[in-house]
Amino acid sequence: MTAITLVQGDITRQSADAIVNAANSSLLGGGGVDGAIHRRGGPAILAECRELRASRYGKGLPTGQAVATTAGDLDARWVVHTVGPVWSATEDRSGLLASCHREALRVADELGARTVAFPAISTGVYRWPVEDAARIAVDTVRATPTAVEEVRFVLFDDRAYQAFARQLG
């Protein structure tokens, strides 16, 4: 059974086999978690992302999908990039947010990762309500068969940490 743990802090400071990046579809860096991972991980991550764009993902990584690169200078072996959905009040996109977690775990399994650190996907500039994102993330990880031994949700602030803690209840 996969252990689910919570940490409040900076995901780029985590030691794990794989760190999940809440990427944008371009895979070329951005703000929030994405920008922080690219900055701290260094140029090797961007170089592999550019290769992915030049080969498999010419139009970008589709929302809900995941792909791995090196972790560069991070204390991890891989970064698993996944593109979360933008929250919408008029369209239910929760299946895409769940897919981000399932696909990241699938990629982690293919790599042989045993510890995976996730951010609160889509809760930043994509405006997903953190309580709902926490419910989807925790429920999806619990329901997804995986060889990953520990999923660590790394939450940037106390509000997100508390929302995830309530889901683990």
From TrEMBL:
InterPro entries: Macro_dom, Macro_dom-like. Residues 1-169 form the Macro domain. Gene3D superfamilies: Leucine Aminopeptidase, subunit E, domain 1 (3.40.220.10). It comes from Streptomyces bungoensis. This is RNase III inhibitor. CDD domains: Macro_OAADPr_deacetylase. It comes from the Bacteria.
